[in-house]
Amino acid sequence: MLFDAVALVLDQDEAEVLAWMPEARNFVSDAAAHKKFIGHVGGAEPLMKQAGVIETDGGFVSLATSADSRRFVEACRKLRFWDRKG
Hints:
42% of the residues lie in helices and 13% in strands.
């Protein structure tokens, strides 16, 4: 599978279900490890936590407003968040 960015748009109940699925956890942790931009809503926290994404950086964009969505799309033009540690 090839992708340049990830948007985690789900509510907390959905995230809790996905958090126990190895494929979902791996998808999120791989995206973080490969310095992908990750857009997320507040409900995605359980999945992010179980995937080992505890500390976020400038490559993680909250998608709380339409302005945030535009900011996420603009950030994705850079393809990667190279400043991410790890």
